TrEMBL record, chains A, B:
<dbReference type="GO" id="GO:1990002">
    <property type="term" value="F:methylglyoxal reductase (NADPH) (acetol producing) activity"/>
</dbReference>
<protein>
    <submittedName>
        <fullName>Iron-containing alcohol dehydrogenase</fullName>
    </submittedName>
</protein>
<feature type="domain" description="Fe-containing alcohol dehydrogenase-like C-terminal">
    <location>
        <begin position="187"/>
        <end position="386"/>
    </location>
</feature>
<dbReference type="InterPro" id="IPR018211">
    <property type="entry name" value="ADH_Fe_CS"/>
</dbReference>
<dbReference type="Pfam" id="PF00465">
    <property type="entry name" value="Fe-ADH"/>
</dbReference>
<dbReference type="InterPro" id="IPR044731">
    <property type="entry name" value="BDH-like"/>
</dbReference>
<dbReference type="GO" id="GO:1990362">
    <property type="term" value="F:butanol dehydrogenase (NAD+) activity"/>
</dbReference>
<dbReference type="GO" id="GO:0008106">
    <property type="term" value="F:alcohol dehydrogenase (NADP+) activity"/>
</dbReference>
<dbReference type="GO" id="GO:0005829">
    <property type="term" value="C:cytosol"/>
</dbReference>
<feature type="domain" description="Alcohol dehydrogenase iron-type/glycerol dehydrogenase GldA">
    <location>
        <begin position="9"/>
        <end position="176"/>
    </location>
</feature>
<dbReference type="GO" id="GO:0046872">
    <property type="term" value="F:metal ion binding"/>
</dbReference>
<dbReference type="InterPro" id="IPR056798">
    <property type="entry name" value="ADH_Fe_C"/>
</dbReference>
<keyword id="KW-0560">Oxidoreductase</keyword>
<dbReference type="Pfam" id="PF25137">
    <property type="entry name" value="ADH_Fe_C"/>
</dbReference>
<dbReference type="InterPro" id="IPR001670">
    <property type="entry name" value="ADH_Fe/GldA"/>
</dbReference>
Length: 386, 386
């Protein structure tokens, strides 16, 4: 097990009705910037419920709405301007990971003199942030309990992740019933996203991080069990609850620290989203089995075999056979069980014009990867996923 | 899954050499009360290393030494007096769970006007505490990352646990090499303690807390794998590291919240320690299999069977058979593999004079237990463990 430092300070209020805890925002001042997306929270009543609690707690609320599924730097800039003009004390995101990511960089931008894009490409410039709160409405990214945020500048086809300890939310409300209305498409994509996070933290050559590996397998078992249940019974509480909690734990550090993994698939997917604005979780699902096959070797077979045996109960004694079976199980889960699009053409990417440029950029993010990927490797993976 | 609130704010610095982070204590002021036990930290060099770092950081240090294995209220009172007389800013425990528990109640006592024993029997009276830091030297209780403390008044044969959010340490240093010198006896007892914590959080009739149950099984697998390794290879880093991290995670809330378990074995063991001052982990190991057998029924068999199948790989299809096999595996692990004392006589309890009084007190702590235990049940368990 490698040395690590870990702190998980976010106060989680989990369960039905926990939105009442929004009254706790008083602890951070009186002026709230409420950040949300396309307005679904107005249709499903969460907006009204939140506003009532905030007002009863004596808080005043400014709003930043219209956060995009791949949140754009222009929206962040608008939020930062609001914070500075109105001396906002704290930021409250109500939505999925995109909304929370946007709120995080707004909160950091409010404490920064330059342009917020600096904070996306130079995380070390984040020197502070307004207190961040969230009410989660989509189980996927884990942003509600982590220090990461991903922001895009579509004018430049750039999508990058940033991170800082001060971006961890003070408090997040996780009410599984808020995800009852999530569509089949988004439920499947969100499940693929959390599975991908777990994979990225799990696959490593470290043999002494048993706690982290067993925890990773635990989360995968939960996701494989409840993903299909949520798809077919959208109001199954236990399915929504387990997916929600598993997604938060998949990326809050618990499975990563001491295991020294290095993310491989996310850097490639970020290029897909940056150039084609596709749904992140769908991109991850398409790339993951192709990536597994591309890097399968005598060296990686034992790692994929361990995953197959401990998560899928594969019994093949030979590592290469067990690894191949595990990859096949993963593929089946994404494309048959979860009904996710199988290749890039199915998500509307009909030509390969940008693959070379995308691969060049992704390769920069794959340095120190579980199995290092060159530009040429990545082009091959994109083509195999086409 | 039940509703819950969870916060795990303790900053963990895990790994070899992480004691250097003691310089961070500056964040809480300048005057430290250093709390430790019988002086082993002076023999193994940890005391000198800590003092050097603290002094270089400009901190002044008062000392409370001689904390007992079952820490006594008299020692807590001494520490509280020191804090009040010398305007101590923070408390630093270097030791195992007993030392950290003592430091916690000292820290709370420093902020309380009455006698510190009040805070043990009335946790709700804990209204604040000095910042608490720890350097862990024994993997067992999880006190380094939780809100609990157990203190005894041996003059009254009383041993009670108290708890408050402000008792969670600010920061804990977990260096697995500091446990290399832990004796076989204490390694086995510590492993039994962490296993018992995991059991107590794991066994429940809740069927929707999959994340928590899978995490509990993960921790048990790690403990069952590495307990014997640490016993026979005391300087095996991965064994000491996995046991250390698993012990912290077993009781920091992660496996308990949402699963609504209720502790059964600890209340019984606390009476054994209160009346006979035995080693806590040994008492837990002796009682656990007897307790399991006592409550085994058609209703509990599926729960023990799930444990057996998921942790021990038991394949019996019939729940009662699988449950019995799981209990037998547990017994074998404690008494054969870990060489722990098998019954109360082996830890020096040679008469049953106090069983009735002990059972009466333990029964008060077993209200709302996984399977409720009456005074008569507990007497039977004590006798079967004799």
């Amino acid at each position: 097990m490698y040395n690590f430092t870990l702190q998980m300070p976010t106060r989680i209020h989990f369960g039905k009705g926990q939105i009442s805890h929004l009254s706790e925002l008083k602890e951070s001042g009186s002026k709230v910037l409420l950040v949300y997306g396309g307005g679904s929270i107005k249709r499903n009543g969460i907006y009204d419920a939140a506003m009532k609690i905030l007002k009863e707690a004596g808080l005043t609320v400014e709003e930043l709405s219209g956060v995009e599924p791949n949140p754009k730097i222009e929206t962040v800039r608008k939020g930062v301007a609001l914070c500075k003009e109105d001396s906002i004390d704290m930021v409250l995101a109500i939505g999925g990971g995109s909304t929370i990511d946007c709120a995080k960089v707004v909160a950091a931008g409010a404490k920064y003199d330059g342009d917020a894009w600096d904070l996306v490409i130079h995380p070390e410039k984040i020197q502070g942030a307004l207190p961040i709160y969230s009410v989660l409405t989509l189980s996927a990214t884990g942003s509600e309990m982590d220090e990461f945020a991903v922001i895009s500048d579509m004018t430049k086809n750039e999508k990058w992740g940033t991170a800082a300890p001060c971006l961890k939310p003070e408090m997040s409300v996780l009410d599984p019933t808020y995800t009852y209305s999530v569509s089949k498409k988004q439920t499947a994509a969100g499940t693929a996203d959390m599975i991908s996070h777990t994979f990225e933290n799990y696959f490593s050559f470290e043999t002494g991080a048993d706690v982290q590996k067993r925890f990773g397998e635990s989360l995968l078992k939960v996701m494989f069990k409840y993903g299909p249940v949520a798809l077919h019974e959208p109001e199954n509480y236990d399915a929504r609850a387990n997916l929600m909690w598993a997604a938060s734990l998949a990326i809050n550090g618990l499975t990563r620290v001491g295991n020294a993994p290095a993310w491989c698939v996310h850097p490639m997917e970020h290029e897909l989203s940056a150039f084609y604005d596709i749904t992140h979780g769908q991109g991850l699902a398409i790339l993951t089995p192709v990536w597994m096959e591309h890097i399968l070797s005598d060296k990686t077979a034992p790692i994929f075999a361990e995953y197959g045996r401990n998560v899928w109960g594969i019994t093949a004694a030979n590592d290469m056979s067990a690894a191949k079976e595990a990859i096949e199980k993963t593929r089946e889960f994404f494309f048959t069980t979860m009904e996710l699009p199988k290749n890039l053409r199915e998500v509307g990417i009909t030509e390969q014009t940008h693959f070379e440029k995308m691969a060049e950029k992704a390769a920069a993010g794959c340095v120190g990867c579980f199995v290092p990927l060159s530009k040429e490797d990545i082009i091959e993976i994109f083509k195999a996923a086409f």
